[in-house]
Amino acid sequence: MPSSTMPPPTPTSLYGGAAGRRVTVRDLAAAKERHEKWPMLTAYDAMTARVFDEAGVPVLLVGDSAAMVVYGYDSTIPVTVDDLLPLTAGVVRGSSRALVVADLPFGSYQASPAQALESAARFLKEAGAHAVKLEGGHRVLPQVEALVSAGVPVMGHLGLTPQSVNVFGGYRVQGRGESGEELMKDAKDLERAGAFALVLECVPAELAERVTTSLSIPTIGIGAGPATDAQVLVWQDLMGLTPHPARFVKRYGDLGADLDRAARAFAADVVSGAFPAQEHTYR
Question: Which ranges form a coiled coil (predicted)?
């Protein structure tokens, strides 16, 4: 598409106000005060990070969802710190203004605050991440406090926490009935512990709205209704690469079909001898 017909960058003063520098956690806090919504996308490599960064997405998450969409596992549990470090480094190098958040994978922070700090330090020092995300409520409060005290910005994650899928018995909506009050308490405790933002995944919309209005830090919804301060999706879901996306996913493209057509056309040209043609050949 010619540049003259390209849509403008995402119309958010959060991003525009950070022109020439990285978005910071203070920018996100200010957006909450302005009641300004913003998008977050996953990214796992430099090229897609550059595209999303230039499109105006202010926060990029190097999610442990890489376990499925990059490494081919059937859950997030097998992925390791060593698996995610090079992906995070690529996203940092490929972006120039987005805040890059790295997921702490299963087994890298649950044992102790010291373990959490060791893992988070690797993401900041070796990969250049600007913040980390971890899952859970009251059980991880000591970890959150230790990280924040050490200068590591922490994003929390409540509701359907995929690293606990075996405990939940599958990917189910969380926070209905009395468990909603427990989630609310966990959210407030995470804010007090110093978390700068909170992901709410697969929770009833009414509960997500209550949490959002009760906190001074921004909430980021994924399957949590429209009232959260931000929304996040896995980019492969967004672009139609996932064959059976969750109910909360809206597809904004059909990259899977485009890749299939291109691969078939390339293969056919090679078999027929149409590629490479003269214009693709050096003399």
Answer: none
- Tens digit of each residue's pLDDT (9 = 90 or more) over 117-168: 999 999 999 999 999 999 999 999 999 999 999 999 999 999 988 776 555 4
3-state secondary structure 60-115: EEECCCHHHHCCCCCCCCCCCHHHHHHHHHHHHHHCCCCEEEEECCCCCCCCCHHH
pLDDT in tens, 189-237: 999 999 999 999 999 999 999 999 999 999 999 999 999 999 999 999 9
Q: How many domains does the chain have?
A: 2
Annotated active-site residue in 181, 201, 206, 279: 201
- Domain containing 39 equals 25-252
Residues that constitute the known binding site for Mg(2+): 64, 103, 135
Q: Report the C-alpha gap between 82 and 79 in whole angstroms.
A: 8
Does 201 qualify as catalytic in the annotation?
A: yes
- Same domain? For 197 and 273 the reply is no
Residues annotated within a binding site: 64-65, 103, 133, 135
Mark whether 269 and 138 lie in a shared domain. no
CATH number at residue 246: 3.20.20.60
Copy the structure tokens of residue 215: 């906190």
In a domain, residue 166? The reply is yes
Lowest mean pLDDT among 60-74, 95-109, 164-178, 251-265: 164-178
- What pLDDT was estimated at residue 18? 55
What is the model's pTM? Answer: 0.92
Binding residues for 3-methyl-2-oxobutanoate are 64-65, 103, 133
pLDDT of residue 178: 79
255 class by beta-carbon count within 10 Å (0-12 exposed, 13-18 middle, 19+ buried):
middle
**DSSP-derived secondary structure letter, 224:** S
The SS3 assignment for 36 reads: coil
One domain for residues 206 and 139:
yes
Q: Are residues 265 and 222 in the same domain?
A: no
